[in-house]
Amino acid sequence: MASLFTKIVKGEVPAYKIAEDSQFLAFLDINPNSKGHTLCIPKKEVNKIFDLDEEVYQELMRFSRKVAIALEKTVDCKRVGMAVVGLEVPHVHVHLIPLNDMSDMDFSKSVKMKDEEFKNLAESIHVNL
User: Fold this and answer.
1) For the chain: N or C, fewer Cβ within 10 A?
2) Phi/psi zone of residue 114: left (φ > 0), alpha (ψ -120 to 50 degrees), beta?
3) Which residues contact 20 (CB under 8 A, 6 or more apart)?
4) What is the pTM (predicted TM-score) of this model?
5) Domains and CATH numbers, the chain
6) CA-to-CA distance for 55 and 53, rounded, in angstroms?
7) For residue 126, how far is the Cα from the chain centroid?
């Protein structure tokens, strides 16, 4: 059965997309730890990050770096943190989280945003790519 992220890649589930190329997709997390929390995924469904081919792994890191730089230009933060946890969706995903405090890395909390806020933020980050 396809993961939620595969359904996003296929356009079966909507997402606030930031960046996309032939191999990867970046979109806003709908339950963000902080404003701008973004997920970067390979389009190919692979469960665990270290199961990716070496080349795909390196390209995912390059793609994530590009998105993180745009994110930092867009969202007021001290830095962009990165985490790879992968327990909630069985599809490789890199969390890019704007940080102002260590508590911003706490996955048990989330900030609430309205649809229009998500749309405007996704567009603003995309412009800074």
Assistant:
1) N
2) beta
3) 26
4) 0.96
5) 4-127 (3.30.428.10)
6) 5
7) 13
- pLDDT tens for 71-119 read 999 999 999 999 999 888 999 999 999 999 999 999 998 999 999 999 9
86: alpha, beta or left? (left if phi > 0; alpha if psi -120 to 50): left
In sequence order, what are the beta bridge partners of 83? 95
Residues pairing with 24 in the sheet: 42
> Cα(44)–Cα(39) distance, rounded to whole angstroms?
15
Residues carrying an active site annotation: 93
Contact 29, 95 (CB under 8 A): yes
pLDDT one-digit tens code per residue, 33-45: 999 999 999 999 9
> Could you give the strand order of the β-sheet that contains 17-20, starting from the edge strand earlier in sequence?
17-20, 24-28, 38-42, 94-99, 79-83
Q: Are 38 and 30 in contact (CB under 8 A)?
A: no
The string over 32-51, giving b where at least 16 C-beta atoms fall within 10 Å of a residue's C-beta and e elsewhere, is bbbbbbbbbbbbeebeebee
* N residues, the chain: 129
